[in-house]
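Q: How would the structure tokens look for this protein?
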Amino acid sequence: MNTGFRKFYKEHKSRFFGYLLRRSGDYHLAADTMQESFTRYIERYGMQEPSISLLFTIGRNLLNDNGRRQRPNVPFDEELYEGAFDEESTYLVREESRRVLNAMQQLSTEDVDILSLVVSQDLSYKQIAEMTGTSEANIKVKIHRSRLKLKEILRKGEL
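A: Here is the predicted structure in token form.
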């Protein structure tokens, strides 16, 4: 593996895993998909300039393929994902993560996908539009509507 790809992997693995985890809600599936995505990327595009949008497209397609085979229904196991926080902060982050992941499971697949892509931070609206095959303006509208839906689900959960 060349040093350029190694650097690319180190810079993007955490955000990419976070996207896969939010999208699937399954720690093990996200880990397997991350490994498979990087493997496919380097096998097919190893000598090219690294592209984060291409990596996300590969991961997204792998999750879509898996979703066609079976709908994942495995809850996020917070004990497998450890942060560098004190106990109280860790607990609060875990509870909020669980709450948001549960709320996201109530959204449509398209809404989950769009929100997961935008939260990954490295992708611009233009890149997301290219990945999803829609216009940038349409992506902005979809993101706004998906966020409103998620806020409403979270608000109802607080009552």
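Residues 136-158 form the longest helix (23 residues).

Helices lie at 3-24, 27-45, 52-69, 87-104, 109-119, 125-132, 136-158.

Upvote if useful.
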